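Changelog excerpt

This revision adds worked examples to the README so contributors can see how folded entries look when concatenated. The first example is reproduced verbatim below.
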Amino acid sequence: MRFNRIKMTLMAASVVFAAAAVALYGPAPETAAAQGAIVTLYKSKCASCHGVDGKANTAKGRESKTRDFHAEEVKKMSEAQMLQVTLKGKNKMPGFEKQLGADKCKELVAYIRETFK
């Protein structure tokens, strides 16, 4: 009887701990492979202008006046605004909707928002 009570207490504590971890840190990435794929996609489609560090300090970035992901004006953009720019393009930035599809563009925006806070 006492063993069951201890077991139930430990299980309840585990649930509370897991809920607190998700609340503090967000859900765990789906898989390491999926995270690696989005990093590779960012490097192949975005880094030539925005830079690996998101600061747009590349030759192409300076030439086209690419926005720094760390800039306040970019941080103030909603995810929906960033997604629209990623899908349709803006100024000298091309849109990627036809090439990547909406889901991959959403993943890129989420990666950018999380990585370049």
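The second example, added in the same revision:
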Amino acid sequence: MTMLPWASLILSYAGFTALALAMPRHHEELWGGKPGPLARRLWQAGGALALLASLILALATWPNAPVAVSAWAGLLTLAAFALAMVLTRRNLGGHRALVLAPPALALGCGFLAAVF
């Protein structure tokens, strides 16, 4: 089995993280301040692009488009649930690291895939 489903899941988490950081409440919890209008748009665009990349990876993984979209919806559900659990846990040490580790992992996996 290839790593594409895992990469799709990580990109989904990264996309939802970016969309959460576009919201003033979550941005303030993680970075200590509210995002400006340009920052909000950039976070939203980054989140949308990550979710689109996740869909493209799902379509590359499963040859049948309806199956791919259904599996992608399942991956989105898992990613959203994981992020929701991290964001609701306020007194967790390393809160910022837990939220930002999967997007960093996605970038690292993308770099490794490009090299090899």
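Reviewer comment on example two: Residues 37-61 form the longest helix (25 residues). The helical segments are 4-21, 24-31, 37-61, 65-88, 95-115.
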